[in-house]
Amino acid sequence: MDNNEHPENDPLYAGLKVQKGLAQPPNVNPYLKTRKRESKKNFTVSEYVEGILAGNITILSQAVTLVESAKPEHQQIAQEIIEKCLPFSGKSVRIGITGVPGAGKSTSIDVFGLHLIKQGKKLAVLAIDPSSERSKGSILGDKTRMEQLSREKNAFIRPSPSAGSLGGVARKTRETIILCEAAGFDSIFVETVGVGQSETAVHSMVDFFLLIQLAGTGDELQGIKRGIMEMADAVIINKADGDNIDRANLAKAQFTNALHLFPLAESGWSPKVLTYSGYYGIGIKEIWDMVDEYIDFVKKNGYFSHRRNQQSKYWMFESINEALKNNFYQDPKIIKALPAIEKQVLDAEISSFTAAKRLLDLHG
Ligand code: GDP
Q1: pTM
Q2: What's the per-residue H, E or C state across the chain?
């Protein structure tokens, strides 16, 4: 036995004798690691809330991680934290920013953000990006995209919650807004790519919706979904620099005309069109003066709080829908029966309606 452990003790190697040795106590406390991890994760709800209200960014980040988690036990704590933070939220200006990839969102958010921070504001930059290949912070929310801003202590940049249903991702972002506001952030950006349905989700959680467009493509109004234009409180035309200035001005005239064709928005505000250059920092102040003007305008005419109330109602129904859906698809009876019924539909053995009814009846 001994010889197996220490082959040097074989009589073959005369003159060599290795002692058995004593077990050494580990020099690092083996419990330390787990204890440390536990203490990091195991804040009580009130510790989270106190930390957030004190503006502790580490605790805020951890609470956001709970909001984003799919685990029911995390969700439960997250909901309690949100509930307690709610009375301290709502005091920010929430801005939605959209534009197709390459429009200059990152560059613009970087300079817009610095502009606000120079005015003494605290800014949280969040994103909604439900598409799977862009998740994990690779493009949206990647801090390196907002290089200057990411070095500012008064900026909190958080990538999009990872892929999932748009409704789910958007709800998490909305809840994160509440936590950020409770942590003292008075300006919130919610960024999304200007493709797909995510603009509608962003629109449903912001006070002002900025659409970034490009000039110089020759067909400015093509490919822009009417719906997005209608949601915009301002269209800002980026890259108005160098020999692109004339084209930017032309695009401005075209957008202004196009916007005139829409009926007046419920807010009573006529959407503005401005040109700027994110890269060279031209026209930035004008954009933020306009946003301030809008906020003043809608606060005076009552639309600001009206819109927020409508949004709360919308999110109540969204949350109900999401919960009902999850409840259904996570029902073990449904998980078990679904593949066979799905196959029957694919094989045209039963209609989709019959299939749906059978599953719904099974769920009860
Ligand atoms: P995003 O995909 O919408 O986030 O766009 P980016 O901010 O990454 O910008 C896309 C490209 O456009 C980058 O190469 C930027 O350097 C460039 N860009 C952004 N803003 C401007 C601008 O104001 N003027 C010019 N000329 N280029 C810009």
Answers
A1: 0.81
A2: CHHHHCHHHCCCCCCCCCCCCCCCCCCCCHHHHHHHHHHHHCCCHHHHHHHHHCCCHHHHHHHHHHHHCCCHHHHHHHHHHHHHHHHHCCCCEEEEEEECCCCCHHHHHHHHHHHHHHCCCCEEEEEECCCHHHCCCCCCCCHHHHCCHHHCCCEEECCCCCCCCHHHHHHHHHHHHHHHHHCCCCEEEEEEECCCCHHHHHHCCCCEEEEEEECCCCCCCCCCCHHHHHHCCEEEEECCCHHHHHHHHHHHHHHHHHHHCCCCCCCCCCCEEEECECCCCECHHHHHHHHHHHHHHHHHHCHHHHHHHHHHHHHHHHHHHHHHHHHHHCCHHHHHHHHHHHHHHHCCCCCHHHHHHHHHHHHC
Residue in the structure block whose two tokens are 């990411």: 150
Residue 86 Cα, ligand 1 centroid: separation in angstroms?
Answer: 36
Please report the pLDDT score of residue 135 as a whole number.
Answer: 43
Distance 36 CA to ligand 1 centre (A): 43
Edge-to-edge strand ranges of the sheet holding 187-193: 155-157, 123-128, 187-193, 93-99, 208-214, 234-238, 272-275
Among protein residues, the one with the nearest Cα to ligand 1's atom 11 is 102
Q: Which atom of ligand 1 is nearest to the CA of 193?
A: 3
pLDDT in tens, 58-103: 999 999 999 988 888 998 999 999 999 999 999 999 999 998 888 8
Q: For the residues 292-311, what does the mean pLDDT come to?
A: 96
pLDDT in tens, 171-211: 899 999 999 999 999 999 999 876 667 888 888 999 999 99
Locus of tokens 């505000």: 269
